[in-house]
Design goal:
Number of strands: 0
Oligomer: single chain
Shape: elongated
Mean pLDDT: 90
Structural class: mainly alpha
Strand content: under 5%
Distance between the termini: 56 Å
Helix content: over 70%
Number of helices: 6
């Protein structure tokens, strides 16, 4: 019996957009994955983890990806430009989110939240 083929680009997209709720982990490992449920429990903090995991998933070589997730699928992954563009957007979005979080923390610490 052939196992389902796990698409690396889709997993990266899920991690970048819905990584805070662990959608990529549910896609890859199913509903019994403890780390996916930890993402759900720690939602605000796990958004940053989702960005990092999107970069890790997207930058994993196709051969290694297939060995880990598609060993029994009978198909090979062939990532292309959509994945590259997704990684660039993920990196930019993650950088913006991190800078915004740092700015908000400094706002709260030094002005008592006077700017928002």
């Amino acid at each position: 019996m052939m196992a389902a083929h796990k698409n690396k680009t889709l997993a990266t997209l899920l991690a970048a957009v819905l990584g805070g709720v662990g959608a990529h982990r549910f896609y890859l490992y199913g509903s019994r994955d403890k780390w996916a449920w930890l993402h759900v429990l720690l939602f605000p903090l796990s958004v940053f983890a989702g960005f990092l995991e999107a970069l890790v998933i997207g930058l994993t070589p196709d051969e290694k990806w297939d060995g880990q997730h598609n060993a029994a699928s009978g198909r090979q992954s062939s990532s292309g430009w959509p994945l590259v563009l997704l990684l660039v957007l993920t990196y930019g979005g993650g950088a913006i989110a991190l800078i915004a979080a740092i700015a908000r923390v400094f706002d709260l610490l030094y002005t008592g939240g006077a700017y928002g």
